[in-house]
Amino acid sequence: MVLGRKFVLKQHFKGNPKPEDFELVEEELPALKENEIQFHSQFLSVDPYMRSYTKRMTPPFTMIGSSVAVVEESRHPSYPKGITIIILAGWIERGVVNPDDMGKNSPGNTLGGVMKAADMGSLSKSLLLGACGMPGNTAYFGLLEICKPKAGDTVVVSGAAGAVGSLVGQIAKIKGCKVIGFAGTDEKCQWLKEI
């Protein structure tokens, strides 16, 4: 018998999330069916969008989010045992999914997905949820493909100390732009001067 664990959002939190807003649920995992995988998460995402997105959902439910995981067992030809994946299954430590069906049974039929992770070499795989993941892609393509700044341009970044904003500022500096960043505290502003 293999036990899985997941975090369930019991109630919408007010202010900062608190332990009593969540429940860590343990459950026996089923035997794998054809095209299913059993994964074990190594890193879970915690992102600002989660608060507003979950407001549209009625608790209790598995907390939404992405994770970097290892495929522990597999009956899916595209996801062999031992590979690292990025999976949008929520805050699940260990679980079973069919990658081909993910998203079809989610709110709006849009959540979920599995993709093979890039080889990170000696870098931490946690970067797949940050600079090399959704925040990094948002910063990179949003700035370079949509804004298309040129050397000497001034780039203004609100939320400059956030996951996306801090990367936008660094990319803009690399491209020879003058960067003006806004952040919510003196400590965040000082940190921005150091990166």
Mean pLDDT: 92
Q: What ranges have pLDDT less than 50 throughout 5 or more consecutive residues? A: none
Q: Rounded to an integer, what's the Rg over CA atoms?
A: 19 Å
Q: Number of helical segments? A: 4
User: Which class do the helix and strand fractions yield?
Assistant: alpha+beta
Shape: globular
| Beta-strand proportion | 25-35%
Strand order of the largest sheet: 7-3-5-6-8
Number of E-state strands: 10
Report the major sheet.
Answer: 5 strands, antiparallel
How much helix is in the residues? 10-25%
Termini gap: 48 Å
Secondary-structure element order, as H and E? EEEHEEEEEHEHEH
Architecture overview:
The chain is α+β, with helices and mostly antiparallel strands and 195 residues long. It is 20% helix and 26% strand. The protein contains four helices and ten strands. It has helices at residues 49-54, 134-147, 165-174, 186-194; strands at 3-9, 22-28, 37-44, 61-62, 67-74, 84-87, 94-97, 114-116, 154-157, 178-181. It has a five-stranded antiparallel sheet, with no helix packed on it. Strands 2-1-4 form a three-stranded antiparallel sheet, with no helix packed on it. It has a two-stranded parallel ribbon with strand order 9-10. Strand 9, helix 3 and strand 10 (178-181) form a beta-alpha-beta unit. The radius of gyration is 19 Å and the shape is globular. The mean pLDDT is 92.
